[in-house]
Automatic annotation (TrEMBL):
Keywords: ATP-binding, Ligase, Nucleotide-binding. It catalyses: a long-chain fatty acid + ATP + CoA = a long-chain fatty acyl-CoA + AMP + diphosphate. PANTHER family: AMP-BINDING DOMAIN-CONTAINING PROTEIN-RELATED, LONG-CHAIN-FATTY-ACID--COA LIGASE. Signal peptide: none annotated. PROSITE patterns: AMP_BINDING. It comes from Chlorobium phaeobacteroides (strain DSM 266 / SMG 266 / 2430). This is AMP-dependent synthetase and ligase.
Amino acid sequence: MGLINSDFNTLPELFSSIFTHYKGQSSTFPLARKINGAYEPISYDLLQEDVRHCAAYLKEHGIAAKDRVAILSENRPGWYMADMAILMLGAVTVPLYPSLPPNQIEYILRNCGAKGIIVSNMLQLGKIISIWQKLPDLSLVIVMNRLEETIDEVVDLNQVKDEGKTILEKKPWLLDGIDVEPDDIATLIYTSGTTGLPKGVMLTHRNLCENVKSCSTVIRLDETDRSLSFLPLSHAYERTGGYYLLFSCGAAIYLAESVETVSLNIAEARPTIIFTVPRLFDRIKANTLKQIGNESAIKQKIFFWALHTGEEFHRQMNAKGKAALAVSMQHSLADKLVYAKIRKKFGGKLRYFVSGGAALPQKVGEFFQALSINILEGYGLTETSPVTNVNRPEKIKLGTVGPAVNNVQIRIADDGEILMKGPNIMKGYWQDEDATREVIKDGWFYSGDIGEIDRDGYLKITDRKKHIIVTSGGKNIAPQPIENLISESPYVDQVIVIGEKRPFLIALIVPDFSKLMEYAKENSISATTNKALIENKNIQQIYEKLMRTISRQLATHEKVRKFLLVDEAFSIENGDMTPTMKLKRKTITSRYAAEIDKVYQALNMVYNTE
């Protein structure tokens, strides 16, 4: 069915059309959250009522069109309600990751001149209270959780809704005649940035609405669909795909309790579609193989037979459009014995995973495809609202991010950079004309990514332009394909390849310590800490062997000459990752600068004749 109503050019028009369509209906609902161990739906009528009451409160307390109001919260019903209320007033939503520390929150709130902020709980409220005196524009602070004690100038959401209801009863006209234009800014999303200060991406109502319309023609959704939401709504990908798109098609959004409970919540919510990032697939694959490793020899044999059957079936389907009769028959049997049981773990109704936010390693995609689980890999940036490309359900090409969606033009510049044009391209960076001019030229957005388009129009991303390593010998090397090869090892959790202005490449590797501990146990290696493990010669030999194997697949200048094992994972908490789970290469290389220098000094002594 797709969109319930395609005649919308602003987000308030989208919300209004959906609320009108489902008025008085109880069989369908937009949101469900976990209460007392079971999923409970929130009706369209109740959500609309709460949105109106919240909007009335905000307006009565000084929030007007174009004012910036931030949301600092995990995914929960209050997030959707707050966003709709802010947008309904023609104000601008500024989403903040709940993992951000106070100093970064302060920078963003000061930079955008936020007038109000809605936070989830006392932890987030504490961050705001600690910086409030440095924020002269901030006059309104609302907390979603119930306030147990009175805090000056802070109200909770229940008070907001109650007061908003009273305000509307006295002034029923208060929300009438609010004029929101398609080219007005709907949201300011601050890109976390792997280097430098975050920039506020200005996305208009037209940007987001056009992107929703484009996506709805690729992934057909209707009110029989349901998703499980666990990616942060602060991220443009979850916001457009996992919220606005689903809402516009009448699909239900089930809220995961946390990232840790995703596998449990999938079985409970029984979603038909899940928007996620590649890291989840790595975990699912590792857990699946671990579970199989604990089964009997015959069950293991059946699983790997089914996996190889699936690989062969899809190899033939991709090459010829059909599979040989014998392979098809084996594939049907494998489906009954293995694939169906694995699908049941995902609730049994899953049609697609949609993967974005980072590159999906091709081998990982092939593993899931072999088990009859469809992953539609897509691509885009915050600046593009965000979706520009996505694989089509009828033709999935692993290793690519699919063709462009409707309304988006893609071309490749002479240096390989991917350029885009369309109604989804941002208005610019907030109060930063220089940065805007750097990326938008002659109507084209310069993505900073390197790629190529195949004869079917499918885009393949080969690397980030700014990640391209230029060695001291002048060789240009894309690290991502090399990192993907290294990541395929079960003993590798995270990796970055470095070599800028150096004669050779080396790799910083965070091992999969659970796997290493198993190996150590099996091989009578006595090491009780991560540090002791990575210093063990037998353990290091695993990675030496891995580097030799990978070297055979690479050109001479691409070979990784040495590796450095790291005993602490790269994470958001230690500052090595952005809130969108991207590695901060500059930060990581600075942190391990001394160790890296030692490796290069030793290497130079060996290779100084090259």
